[in-house]
Amino acid sequence: MPSSVIANMIYDAASSTLRIVFVSGAVYEYLRVPATIYNAMKTAKSKGTYLNRHIKPNYSFKKIRE
Known about the structure:
The chain is of the alpha+beta class and 66 residues long. It has one domain. It has a 4-stranded antiparallel sheet, covered by helices on one side.
């Protein structure tokens, strides 16, 4: 999962929560993300672009750590 912005992605199917760990150390949880969206992000050429276009504008989030 090479990305210049995203260090790790963790998906919890039971709660439909997508946790994004950024290279900067910031951690966000995106809520009610369908598994199909997560799977599409996993295969996207650019994880950061996919996040900005398809997840950030469409799903609520919580900042876990700066």
